[in-house]
Amino acid sequence: MKIAILGYGTVGSAVVQFLLENQKLIRARCGKNITPVIALTRTPKKNALIPITQNIDEILNAEVDVFVELMGGVNETFKIVSEILKKKKAVVTANKAMLAYHRYELENLAKDIAFGYEASVAGGIPIIKVLKEGLSANNILTIKGILNGTSNFILSSMSEKNMSFKQALEKAQNLGYAEANPSFDIEGQDAAHKLLVLSSIAYNLKAKPENILIEGISQITPEDIYFANEFELTIKLLGIAKVRENKVELRVHPTMINKDTMLAKVEGVMNAISINGDLLGESLYYGAGAGGKATASAVISDLMDIAKDQAKTPMLGFVNTLEYKLLDKDEIYTKYYLRMKVEDKIGILSKITQLMSQNDISIDSFLQKPKKNDENYSTLFFTTHLTYEKSIQNLLKILDQQDFIKTKPFMMRIE
Amino acid sequence: MKIAILGYGTVGSAVVQFLLENQKLIRARCGKNITPVIALTRTPKKNALIPITQNIDEILNAEVDVFVELMGGVNETFKIVSEILKKKKAVVTANKAMLAYHRYELENLAKDIAFGYEASVAGGIPIIKVLKEGLSANNILTIKGILNGTSNFILSSMSEKNMSFKQALEKAQNLGYAEANPSFDIEGQDAAHKLLVLSSIAYNLKAKPENILIEGISQITPEDIYFANEFELTIKLLGIAKVRENKVELRVHPTMINKDTMLAKVEGVMNAISINGDLLGESLYYGAGAGGKATASAVISDLMDIAKDQAKTPMLGFVNTLEYKLLDKDEIYTKYYLRMKVEDKIGILSKITQLMSQNDISIDSFLQKPKKNDENYSTLFFTTHLTYEKSIQNLLKILDQQDFIKTKPFMMRIE
């Protein structure tokens, strides 16, 4: 089986390297040789292990069986991949952004053509296969995933090493875990793309990133970490899908979770996805969510499935008859954490709790730390019982208009 | 697709129940109806959801596409399954004992016939699929699995609730997690059967239970738990496969592992398998390892793969060209923990350490607790640096002959 590689960066070169290094193993395990014959690269490379070209047309006309797309990009790349599928050639991709926007168009084009995308979610963890095949007998009740290693590294560093967000981000950048412009990772976009891919397999949801609730971790302070520790909680950036009757909540945001859950124990740059199915109950999948070798593991396993002629089911797994709808953001129903800085005067707490009850929000726990001498405000921490997103958003709007509030209140959801 | 169920107990009835309850979902996800038409049962059942029979010949002659074997048993069942395969009918089984002894004969018989056995290892966790397909690009360096929920429940209870082994076993029996005769679970046989299945997919090892090192958890005392806690370790019954050059260690035994590993965090009856691949690094798979519903999840996913015509690769995954050999037990090379009760006399510690160094064993840590008033012996705890199994076994033999040793020394391996 001959393949062409589009994009010869970290992942592309790892794919080529290990197709060659593990050649004997790969043939033993899938019954065929898988041979990379040409790679597309933007910048010429010395010591490339296979012939390279900078000419996209040369790649597209190459006589190969499978195209591996590792270029990134959304609309331009979608056009190129569409062209390949129209030629009835199989595709393997790691491109979650393209899938977040174009997965249903791609599925239409890929009828009877193998289309692998294991590498698009959680790097080397075979979560696409698990969800599409391994758990296929289950109604999926919830998916909760640590889908972005950069954010998890930052939150772990803040929690274990008492760093500020800024210090932890700098550490991540120094170690190469975060990019110079980290917003795609830390503001939840990357995790949202992955959640959307998973939600299609589980629920046939056609949502795009702009349709769902996405919040990042940049507003989290050491005070939040302190509060979480006091109450046996841990803060993780989670992608969450949750069924309520015929509707599904989809959301990405920093989340307080119990310290004794398996997800809470996932540290550093690792990824993990917890899935709750009606038959299996909770199962969890943990591993490296990024990096050349880990991602190559997923790309090559997709290629091997194609070699075994075992990848012909519809790309998103026959879900087209499932009838779930996206739940409106306002209807999200969960517990909340609130942190606010207020004037240190008589009657403030009573005003706040009055505003809460007017919005149908009841308090589950409350913490006020003794004021330090040099501070002219008090910091209050609340957690609430289950309530609607709409109520909390309304409360936040009203609180923000109050004179006694010193800085914009910060809210985080609790699972 | 019509199926017959052989064995209508907890798992069999859950399979039938959920094939019916999740019928619409199953059709949506695999494109076919999967219909259970007849079940074999030893004892007549009231309220069976489908026709039942006590006559094996009636089942074997039923006009169905797939036979689901949930009877248990080794040789007799192997004969029945062989007969089915000779008729060119697909088989799905949860029977790890049969696979531990007959998997290679079954693979020979199942050429071009679908043979699913996801439910045989770790219940509903799709670990067979993960290893056979998801991680297929990887040389598997190690497999470390908590493969028996009963043992894990007992060890968790001993560790968290300060119970003795006997108390924890009784609790497990009261909760229905352990059988009246628990030896199959607590002495490591069950975990060994599962490890053997995994080792065939990863390494093409033809070993049988009697060829590998199997030790159970019944000799573990609260003192061992105490020591583990002191040194930030946790005790788990692990099935371990580990590559050393062209050879593979296979062993099942209670193991001390670092408290901060993901495996150490697996509590109660849950199962988890940590796999280290040369591309992916460590990944871990966690979930329910037993129970009717969880096991049915795996059985039905196998049936759905067959319905999708996606289960035609060789049963053990094309591994027949891999050339690993089983490592001799004596050559196992790891760290060890030793607990021994000795006379409280001058010079004893010096004698013990001399015997250790004569056997090329060097001490990594040592603990002696102050003797209580009513004790006429001292308890000593050691951990060693890396050494060979042969050396430790020799040391244990020599120690056992010494007058100053009050009870047979106890040894546990450390990872």
From TrEMBL, chains A, B:
L-homoserine binds at residue 179. It comes from the Bacteria. This is Homoserine dehydrogenase. Residues 337-413 form the ACT domain. GO terms for biological process: methionine biosynthetic process; threonine biosynthetic process. Its EC number is 1.1.1.3. Pathway: Amino-acid biosynthesis; L-methionine biosynthesis via de novo pathway; L-homoserine from L-aspartate: step 3/3; Amino-acid biosynthesis; L-threonine biosynthesis; L-threonine from L-aspartate: step 3/5. Pfam families: ACT (PF01842), Homoserine_dh (PF00742), NAD_binding_3 (PF03447). NADP(+) binds at residues 6-13. It catalyses: L-homoserine + NADP(+) = L-aspartate 4-semialdehyde + NADPH + H(+). NADPH binds at residue 96. Belongs to the homoserine dehydrogenase family. One of its GO terms (molecular function) is homoserine dehydrogenase activity. Signal peptide: none annotated. The keyword Amino-acid biosynthesis applies. Keywords: Amino-acid biosynthesis, Methionine biosynthesis, NADP, Oxidoreductase, Threonine biosynthesis. The active site is at residue 194.
